[in-house]
Design goal:
182 residues; alpha/beta; Rossmann fold; 9 strands
Length: 182
Protein backbone atom coordinates (compact mmCIF):
# COMPACT_ATOMS: atom_id res chain seq x y z
CA UNK A 1 0.00 0.00 0.00
CA UNK A 2 1.19 3.52 -0.80
CA UNK A 3 -0.15 6.68 0.82
CA UNK A 4 0.54 9.70 -1.39
CA UNK A 5 1.08 12.80 0.76
CA UNK A 6 1.06 10.81 3.97
CA UNK A 7 1.42 13.80 6.30
CA UNK A 8 1.89 12.45 9.83
CA UNK A 9 1.15 8.90 8.60
CA UNK A 10 -2.20 8.48 10.34
CA UNK A 11 -4.02 6.78 7.46
CA UNK A 12 -1.46 4.00 6.83
CA UNK A 13 -1.14 3.48 10.59
CA UNK A 14 -4.90 2.99 10.96
CA UNK A 15 -4.92 0.60 8.00
CA UNK A 16 -1.96 -1.37 9.37
CA UNK A 17 -3.83 -1.68 12.66
CA UNK A 18 -7.21 -2.65 11.20
CA UNK A 19 -6.65 -4.28 7.78
CA UNK A 20 -4.43 -7.04 6.38
CA UNK A 21 -1.76 -4.71 4.97
CA UNK A 22 1.55 -6.43 4.30
CA UNK A 23 3.65 -3.28 4.00
CA UNK A 24 2.90 0.43 3.79
CA UNK A 25 4.85 3.24 2.17
CA UNK A 26 4.14 6.87 2.95
CA UNK A 27 5.36 9.43 0.42
CA UNK A 28 5.62 12.97 1.78
CA UNK A 29 7.25 16.10 0.34
CA UNK A 30 7.43 18.07 3.59
CA UNK A 31 10.49 16.98 5.60
CA UNK A 32 8.99 17.76 9.01
CA UNK A 33 5.86 15.71 8.28
CA UNK A 34 7.85 12.82 6.80
CA UNK A 35 9.98 12.71 9.95
CA UNK A 36 6.87 12.80 12.12
CA UNK A 37 5.25 9.98 10.12
CA UNK A 38 8.38 7.82 10.47
CA UNK A 39 8.44 8.46 14.23
CA UNK A 40 4.73 7.63 14.49
CA UNK A 41 5.32 4.31 12.73
CA UNK A 42 8.03 3.37 15.25
CA UNK A 43 6.10 4.64 18.29
CA UNK A 44 3.07 2.58 17.26
CA UNK A 45 5.04 -0.61 16.66
CA UNK A 46 4.95 -0.54 12.86
CA UNK A 47 8.53 0.53 12.17
CA UNK A 48 9.16 -2.71 10.27
CA UNK A 49 5.89 -2.54 8.30
CA UNK A 50 5.81 1.13 7.30
CA UNK A 51 8.44 3.13 5.44
CA UNK A 52 8.22 6.86 4.99
CA UNK A 53 9.91 8.34 1.95
CA UNK A 54 10.71 12.01 1.58
CA UNK A 55 9.84 12.83 -2.01
CA UNK A 56 7.63 14.53 -4.56
CA UNK A 57 4.47 12.73 -5.69
CA UNK A 58 5.05 14.05 -9.21
CA UNK A 59 8.42 12.26 -9.36
CA UNK A 60 7.80 9.24 -7.17
CA UNK A 61 10.93 7.30 -6.25
CA UNK A 62 8.82 4.16 -5.80
CA UNK A 63 9.02 1.29 -8.29
CA UNK A 64 6.43 1.22 -11.10
CA UNK A 65 3.58 -1.30 -10.73
CA UNK A 66 4.62 -1.99 -7.12
CA UNK A 67 1.38 -1.31 -5.22
CA UNK A 68 -1.89 -3.15 -4.83
CA UNK A 69 -3.49 -0.10 -3.24
CA UNK A 70 -2.76 3.62 -3.46
CA UNK A 71 -4.54 5.97 -1.10
CA UNK A 72 -4.56 9.73 -1.02
CA UNK A 73 -6.21 12.46 1.00
CA UNK A 74 -5.10 15.17 -1.44
CA UNK A 75 -5.14 18.93 -1.03
CA UNK A 76 -8.82 19.82 -1.17
CA UNK A 77 -8.68 23.17 -2.91
CA UNK A 78 -7.43 24.32 -6.26
CA UNK A 79 -4.81 27.05 -6.19
CA UNK A 80 -7.07 30.04 -6.77
CA UNK A 81 -9.97 28.97 -4.56
CA UNK A 82 -10.52 30.14 -1.04
CA UNK A 83 -8.13 31.78 1.38
CA UNK A 84 -4.64 30.27 1.34
CA UNK A 85 -3.25 29.67 4.82
CA UNK A 86 -0.25 31.92 5.54
CA UNK A 87 1.59 28.93 7.05
CA UNK A 88 3.32 27.35 3.99
CA UNK A 89 3.08 23.82 5.47
CA UNK A 90 -0.69 24.10 5.91
CA UNK A 91 -1.11 25.84 2.56
CA UNK A 92 0.68 22.97 0.76
CA UNK A 93 -1.49 20.41 2.54
CA UNK A 94 -4.76 22.21 1.76
CA UNK A 95 -4.27 23.74 -1.69
CA UNK A 96 -2.93 22.30 -4.93
CA UNK A 97 0.24 24.39 -4.69
CA UNK A 98 2.81 21.67 -5.38
CA UNK A 99 0.61 19.23 -7.28
CA UNK A 100 -2.78 18.78 -8.93
CA UNK A 101 -5.32 15.99 -8.92
CA UNK A 102 -3.96 15.03 -12.35
CA UNK A 103 -0.50 14.56 -10.79
CA UNK A 104 -1.98 12.29 -8.14
CA UNK A 105 -3.90 10.22 -10.69
CA UNK A 106 -0.86 9.93 -12.95
CA UNK A 107 1.37 8.73 -10.12
CA UNK A 108 -1.29 6.32 -8.86
CA UNK A 109 -1.60 4.83 -12.35
CA UNK A 110 2.17 4.38 -12.48
CA UNK A 111 2.45 2.78 -9.04
CA UNK A 112 -0.54 0.44 -9.24
CA UNK A 113 -0.32 -3.17 -10.37
CA UNK A 114 -2.93 -4.39 -12.84
CA UNK A 115 -6.38 -4.21 -11.21
CA UNK A 116 -4.86 -2.30 -8.29
CA UNK A 117 -7.11 0.09 -6.41
CA UNK A 118 -6.96 3.82 -5.77
CA UNK A 119 -8.86 5.36 -2.85
CA UNK A 120 -9.40 9.12 -2.57
CA UNK A 121 -11.35 11.42 -0.31
CA UNK A 122 -12.23 14.82 -1.73
CA UNK A 123 -14.73 17.64 -1.26
CA UNK A 124 -18.01 16.69 -2.90
CA UNK A 125 -17.92 19.80 -5.07
CA UNK A 126 -14.99 18.18 -6.92
CA UNK A 127 -16.72 14.82 -7.51
CA UNK A 128 -17.51 15.31 -11.20
CA UNK A 129 -14.06 16.68 -12.03
CA UNK A 130 -12.32 13.76 -10.33
CA UNK A 131 -14.55 11.09 -11.87
CA UNK A 132 -14.01 12.63 -15.28
CA UNK A 133 -10.24 12.70 -14.77
CA UNK A 134 -9.91 9.12 -13.52
CA UNK A 135 -10.77 7.62 -16.90
CA UNK A 136 -8.07 9.72 -18.58
CA UNK A 137 -5.59 7.75 -16.48
CA UNK A 138 -7.15 4.30 -17.09
CA UNK A 139 -8.58 4.34 -13.56
CA UNK A 140 -12.19 3.17 -13.66
CA UNK A 141 -14.41 4.50 -10.86
CA UNK A 142 -15.83 1.49 -9.01
CA UNK A 143 -17.35 2.80 -5.77
CA UNK A 144 -18.45 6.18 -4.46
CA UNK A 145 -19.68 7.01 -0.98
CA UNK A 146 -20.90 10.48 -0.09
CA UNK A 147 -20.55 11.96 3.39
CA UNK A 148 -23.15 14.29 4.89
CA UNK A 149 -22.43 16.06 8.20
CA UNK A 150 -26.13 15.69 9.11
CA UNK A 151 -29.43 14.67 7.56
CA UNK A 152 -30.22 18.33 6.90
CA UNK A 153 -26.98 19.47 5.29
CA UNK A 154 -25.50 19.17 1.86
CA UNK A 155 -22.66 16.79 1.21
CA UNK A 156 -19.15 17.84 2.22
CA UNK A 157 -16.87 14.91 1.34
CA UNK A 158 -16.87 12.03 -1.11
CA UNK A 159 -14.89 8.81 -0.96
CA UNK A 160 -13.92 7.41 -4.36
CA UNK A 161 -12.46 4.01 -5.23
CA UNK A 162 -11.12 3.31 -8.72
CA UNK A 163 -9.49 0.26 -10.30
CA UNK A 164 -6.60 0.39 -12.74
CA UNK A 165 -7.87 -1.01 -16.04
CA UNK A 166 -11.22 -1.90 -14.49
CA UNK A 167 -14.37 -2.50 -16.49
CA UNK A 168 -17.16 0.11 -16.33
CA UNK A 169 -19.57 -0.26 -13.46
CA UNK A 170 -19.97 2.21 -10.61
CA UNK A 171 -21.56 1.31 -7.28
CA UNK A 172 -22.98 4.18 -5.22
CA UNK A 173 -22.75 3.12 -1.58
CA UNK A 174 -25.17 4.21 1.16
CA UNK A 175 -24.41 7.70 2.46
CA UNK A 176 -22.32 8.34 5.56
CA UNK A 177 -24.17 10.61 7.98
CA UNK A 178 -22.30 12.44 10.72
CA UNK A 179 -19.13 10.53 11.54
CA UNK A 180 -20.35 7.34 9.85
CA UNK A 181 -20.48 3.90 11.43
CA UNK A 182 -18.34 3.50 14.50
Amino acid sequence: MVDLGTGCGIIPLILLLTKPVGHAFGLEIQEELASQAAQNAVINGFGDMMEVILGDIRHSPLKKASADVVICNPPYRQVRSGRVNPDPRKAIARHEILLSIEDILSTARTLLRKRGRLALILPSVRLFDVLFQTRRFNLEPKRVQIHYPSLHSSSKLTLIEAALGGKPGLEILPPLIGQGPV
